[in-house]
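Q&A FORM
Asked by: J.P.
Topic: structure of Riboflavin biosynthesis protein RibD

PROVIDED:
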Amino acid sequence: MSATTFDYLMMQRALDLARLGTGYTRPNPLVGCVITHQGRIIGEGWHRQYGGPHAEVHAVQSVTAQHLLPQSRVYVTLEPCSHFGKTPPCADLLIEKKVAEVVVCNLDPNPLVAGRGIQKLRDAGIQVETGLLEAQGRQLNRRFFTFQEQQRPYVVLKWAETADGYLAGPYFQPVPISGELARVAVHQWRAEEHAILVGTRTALHDNPRLNVREWPGQNPVRVVIDKNLSLPPTHHLFDGSQPTVVFTYRERAAKDNLSYVMLSEAEDLFPQILHNLFQRHIQSVLVEGGPTVLHSLLKDGLWDEARVIRSRQRLGGGVPAPQMGLTGLQEHRLLGQDEVFCYRRA
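REPLIED BY: S.T.
REPLY: Here is the structure written out as tokens.
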């Protein structure tokens, strides 16, 4: 297919629709769908929540003139599924409706699909084109692609530092660093990721809740590193309010909404943690750990994004922020009095 400006606009519209499902479809990908007839949109939809109808289903159901579907062109951001999961195969739905053409942004790397959806459509006589706005689609679903292709969660590092490069006061004393707008942004980031991870020191000194009370969305799974089970059981992390996983070198029985994973002291810590999270189908993790956790992940290259909030205030001393010479700056913006730097690893 020789793509036209109209084709690009329709796929961009499908990508914009897909983004509306952020935080609700995990571990499924974000998918949007637009149906056109003779240069006019007649239906559209997106995958709204895990376990619910897929984007193609919502789009087909939104078409009031169903008799136009056999002459329609369908734009979808990810290859229609060909297997039965939580819902029936979307490829079968498009075949049933006898649509004329399907334009796909990205092929699905999930081994359960992996080209089978495309082949199913073509075998039914439907014209299929692929690769339109492919890079934008991979960027949108970077968590899903990393999870499928690298068999680990997508890792987002986050920290707030002062203008003179400190994360906290002396002896890890908590100090308010970022302003109100930045704090709200952090809660938005939490809602966008499947899990949130902290180390022992951060959990001990900050006693965080790690929820999204300042932003609409689902609370992430809390992940805590507590090698020797030294954290007080009265801390918020153990209140049972949301699923929590504790990685440790000591054995302890699980409780409601709280599980313990015993790691091997003979193996590297974070590969074990990421592998376990992958087995739990956790697609992404936001790391709000202290300098030890952040430095380890940066040093080992086990990260995909880093978001650094830098305030104007100075502490003059305390716990230093990671000093790893980050490259790959993707975004720089202001949030009130704070600066936000977003990096992406090549």
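FOLLOW-UP: The radius of gyration is 23 Å.
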